[in-house]
Amino acid sequence: MELAYYTVRSFVLQKVGTIETREVRQLQFTAWPDHGVPNHPAPLLMFLRRVRAECPADSGPIIVHCSAGVGRTGAFILLDILLEQMRHEKAVDVFNTVSRLRAQRNFMVQTEDQYAFIYEALVEAASSGNTEIPVHQLTTHWFRLTELNRLKCQDLVNSDQLSMGLMKTSMNYTNNSSISTGLELEFYQLLIQSNLTKLISSIPSSIGLLSPIDPFSLKTDEKIYGNINFNSSSTSTIGLPRSITGMSTNKSIAAMLPVNLPKNRSLSIIPHDANRVALRAVRGVEGSDYINASYIDGYRSRAAYIATQTPMMNTLEDFWRMIWESGSCLIVKLDGTITLNDLKFMDSPTYWPNLQSARHGFLVVDPIAIYTMPAYIMRELRLTDTRDGSTRTVRQFDASSTADALIHLERQIYYSISNKLDFNELIESSRPITGSTITTASSTMTSFPPNPSSMLETSFTEDDFLRFNQIPTHVISTFRQCYQPICESMLELISQVHKTKEHFGIDGPITVHCKYVLFTLSLLFCIIFSLTSVTDYQEDNTKSFDYVSGNNNLENLGSGITGVFLASSLVLERMRYEGVIDMFQTVKLLRWQRPGLVQTVSEYAFCYATALEYLESFERYTT
């Protein structure tokens, strides 16, 4: 079985003249380059866990080899030893362990880069832990993630029970607000570890994730910048050299060139040089090789997707050049048609032709057919290279209705919170959008919202609390009642996109783009999940607060819902093949490949909800 980062092979071994047979498993890590080290330690850690899982207790020694059997082989063995030492002794001794290895075989861990990479991998393993969950435990894990922290918010902020450096930040949190569920703790941990948020400068980096998270057993080490808590309060804390902590920082030099700046909708969402989609340079045209797009690894293959921003008027030709040159024949459009907060985005042209041909440089795009489905619209387009007459069929999956349904529901909930409306009005206002085939909420939504904890101080009155307490609610059921139709649409979209790819034998990457960012933030989820208090909600509800950057943000970033699609696709495929789910590492790796993929707690929760719906669809089918 070939996966994106490693391949698993099985052999049957039999000695000539005997009847005894043995099965031998070979696991080949394919993401280690010929020169240097892997770009990120997470795939290697995932591979190491798979190796351990394939090795029964009564088996013989594991054979490890590379070209010379010292460099990469030594790094793999060293990491395995140190992870075991960390697990049993709560400490690591890199230097002496390498010395012992070299006493047994010369040149084990051959280069300085490999030695430094071991430190980086240890930090990754210690800060994240093993976040893989068997699919049969997903529902239980979800309950734990949404379990309320019964401590008073003020006590939590001032006590030693707030872990992972999640102190008061620059997000305009008041003294009475704090993180109150494992879901928000997990997402904050993801933000900190991905190092892609402006909050990192104001949050101590003493981090450590318990999976599943138990908010009552968390403790905080000294709030010293630069220290890393390797697991929990029982684990020693070590300081890392500056040269180690920034090893995986990606550079975006091409995106920041003056000639390329107008091609970016936002400078906060730009591709890294290592995995950006590089167009063929046009002779004499500076910056002609640049487009704001990133290759994203899939579950079964590298560079299986392209994540990009919705084309602007000045990047239309670049967009179609990218489709042609990359061999992409599938486009997933996740733009919503709803105008958020009555603000219009002017630079969002229709990049496909509806009735007649459109020319973009040397490429001509012709409409062929259009098919209207419940969850999406599929357009067939013919792309022709006028230089030699070669053609290719491109299929676009327009899932605007799914994006609209999610945006519409979140807007209504946010509006209800801000205006303290009777939530029965929310049910009435959450009817399907005109022209949309997606039902955003059903009559079963009468259980909305969940009972807020009496320990959480909010801006709601006692009458509000009494009214809420009269509603029979449950966190999981409420969430699914609100989002189940949209999750079903997302599952249908993902399924049909990949079925189309397999049916037509398409080898190129799937291009995914979106326009809007989901907004419902902690202000929304204080009602859906009781994540935080709402004492600091915006009185002016014509503005929305950016959960990640702390700014009002209505830009077309090509990251929010795109990240939801990508994360859900990867998670569902792994659930199907391996029977495990690791939402934390999946989203973390996505954000490492392109900034901002899955930007908010709401998007992160929606990914979990989609996985739950996928799991329950199997249960409904089998019963």
From TrEMBL:
Pfam short name (any one): Y_phosphatase
GO molecular function per UniProt: protein tyrosine phosphatase activity
Coiled-coil boundaries: none
Record SMART domains: PTPc, PTPc_motif
SUPFAM superfamilies for this protein: (Phosphotyrosine protein) phosphatases II
PROSITE patterns associated with the record: TYR_PHOSPHATASE_1, TYR_PHOSPHATASE_2, TYR_PHOSPHATASE_PTP
Domain named Tyrosine specific protein phosphatases: residues: 42-116, 558-605
InterPro entries membership: Prot-tyrosine_phosphatase-like, Protein-Tyr_Phosphatase, PTP_cat, Tyr_Pase_AS, Tyr_Pase_cat, Tyr_Pase_dom
Tyrosine-protein phosphatase domain boundaries: 1-125, 255-614
Protein name as catalogued: Protein-tyrosine-phosphatase
Organism: Schistosoma curassoni
